[in-house]
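Q: Could you fold this chain for me?
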Amino acid sequence: MPVYPTPDSYANNFTAPQAPGWDTPTAPGVNPAPAEEGPSVLGAAFRQYNLMSGLFNPAPDFEEQEGYNPFSDPSETKGYEPWATAFSDSRSPQQTASIKQRIDGENQDRQFLAESGVPGVLASIAAGVVDPVTIASLFVPGAQGGLVARVASNAAIAAGGTAISELALHQQQYTRTAEESLFHTAAGAVLGGMLGAGSHLLSPEVRNAAQTEIADSLRNINTGGSVGAMNVPAATLVQETMRGPKVVNKVMNMTPLGRTMDSPSVTVRRTVQQLAENNLTTAKNLEGIATPSAAETQVRMWAREEAASAITANDGFAKFRAQGGTGSKLDFAEEVGRAMRRNDTSSNAVVQETAKALRPILDNIRNEMQSLGMLADNLKVTGAQSYFPRMYRQGEILARRDEFRSIITGWWSRGGNKVPLEDLEIAADEVINKIIGAMRPQDYANAFSVKLPGATKSRSLNVPDDLLEPFLESDVRFVMQRHIRDAAPNIELTRNFGDSSMERVLKDIRDEYTEMIRNNPAEQAKLHKRMNRDEADIMAMRDRLLGTYKMPDDPSGTFVRAGNILRNVNYLTKLGGMTVSAVPDLARAVMVNGFSRTFSAYGKWLSRSPAWKASREEMRKMGTALDIVLSDRSRAIADIADGFSQRTMLESGLDYATGKFGNLTLMNQWNSFHKSLNGMNTADLILGATKSNPRLAKLGIDDNMAARIQQQFNKHGKTVDGLRIGNSSAWDDPAVRAAFESAVVKDVNNTIVTPGIGDTPLWSSSQMGKLVFQFKSFIFGSYNRATVGGIQAGEAQFYYGLGLQLMLGAMTYAIKNTLAGREVDYAPEKLVLEGIDRSGVLGPLMEFNNTLEKVSAGTLGLGPALGTGTQSRYASRNALGSILGPSFDSLGKLSDIATGILSGDFDDKAVHSTRQLIPGQNLFWAAPILSKVEEEIK
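A: Sure. Below is the predicted structure, expressed as structure tokens.
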């Protein structure tokens, strides 16, 4: 079975070769060379932990060289990037060389002490004991009185003394980090507080040893393996507070993103920013502290691999047909899939070439997982000649269960296996049930791990792929897409949080709340309830990213599959005019980038500037503007989630149709164009920045990262027709490339609003919620990302862009009514209300208003209050559909048709309902024709 097995041991033992002993004989007749003077343990310790060493070893003065900049030549500071800020005051090559020498010396001292064992520890303690500040602190009297007073007093004295010493050492040493100083100061406070007044009874040696141990413990707790969330600079609760009016921010509390960003826990606020993509400006951004890159943004960037696999398969098919090949695209794709199970070999040269071209994508996924420790390095493929993700055709297994069971038991009973057939069939049924009940492709890995009757433990009873092939998905497009979408969230969650379960950070959240409850016993019940809610919200967004949130126990159940079909049909029958509805997107570019930048970009497109072509290609390499291939934004707006297993011909056909429908509506082309245009402006803005600002900090770029981006751009980028092209795929600093591309993709998704895992209420992910909430994700996403994000940023361009958006919303109303054959009301109050509704600026608030207007038959709501009637966006919906969503609206129309047929009176209402259930009936280029046909029938 082609899965990665779990090794018996993860041990990676290494034994150093034996060095010559002290009594190694010298060569005859040659006097032994004098021993080389090695580094002194005591000297290294004093240089690291005693501020007197720095006072007696001051930095030399250097003659300033006019116009010298150590960052002009990237090779000047190559290898010293972690300490780049140390060179900021260098005014000559000699001073730069001296700084490098001091950094090397400090690193050597640290390494030498770490490798010296017990002598290194004792020397470090001794150096700290005779530090002047340590000696002085012994003579500071502590407070008298009760236990609390003594604890607080001694904690303050210890923390103060340590802080003074750390401040001096921080100024003397280039490699001493603020985090290290913080831990030592905190350790001093912890030790002083724990020992209280009795701390003066301890010797300085014991106190320094204890303080060092506590500092190391604090550091280990914080790093947890130095991954993901643990690398985010710590910010206070105030710094993690959203900007903007509270009343505007409070509306977001309907969503998990809004609730967690309003949490009393700073850990929760930090975590959600690392998890869910957002457009929020916090107080820390005003200070130049960057918002971390979200796992969701990083997952979305895997679209480039997904698009690459689809384009490679399509190009291979085109070449196959050009060389006289026969068969459908599906036939070709399945041949490629079968070849990838057979070491990328095939009797057809084009099939083999395509399989080999796709192999690096699978290798890249494996390499990423191995680099993060998710997979062992010594992987072996079992069950096939080469690895190809195993995904089952569950519908085929359900229809031919007996045949599938026979294949399994036949393989297991080969070679004279003495296990009774009845026992093998029981085990085979267990395997089948695991496969049918799997929630995602990852669950297939343990499908064949079963426990035979009488056995003491489970065994992995694998069956070769070639025997199961009729029941396996071989369509390489489908398998690669699902494999990428399953692997990417696990990879990026592990990258950001240490593991995809996020257990470490969840523990940190619980620990912080425990401390708050301990300090505020009167608020215990309230804080405990809030902790549970925050934890549930974080886990829900995590599971949404993984694709498992509210996953039904039986994914193959009739209700689940019927719901999926109905949502696909709704998309095909109701969103033909979605491109016209997207006209207000034009204003979003102005709201974010201003008139000048936006229309300059349009000019480059109209003039077919080479800058436009280069930038568009750059965006695609980053994993954005790929809608024509992936239709990702259209499907997100339509609330269509991809299932990972094709079942029947109908379900497969609908899945294919929804993927292509965005091209018929021209929505995919619209999305791809505007993502390219706005990404071009964002990239140019970042590449032109020499330091951070609130917008760049919100996108994850601080002053240090801005400088590093400048270095990469100067080395690899170019300016074409006045536009900066980063050529980031050639950058040789992976961390800088990741930060830059993540910032661009995040800004594009916020500008051309693409709903994310934190933008919608959690109940909308249930099976019933998906039916009721369909087509509403954009409303909530627009409010969170456009309205709240813009108000928090507080830039003038947002407000004049907002005026343009309202105008375009009113224009959309006029266009849609004209196409539908309805009269356009040009009264100012009507145009204003329609502009507000169509623009999405008030998000869920207008959605509630529209529902109220519809169910009250136009007697309640803003429209009736102003005498303008109900909003046009709900004109074609019945009252049931306005409350329970488009699926129930469709069922109502089916009822109208059935009533007309059964009664023999197929009236105008039945005719109109029939028209509205025709796929593509409201495509903007087909709707006028169908309207005339409908009128003729009536």
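A (continued): Residues 394 and 436 are 6 Å apart (CA to CA).
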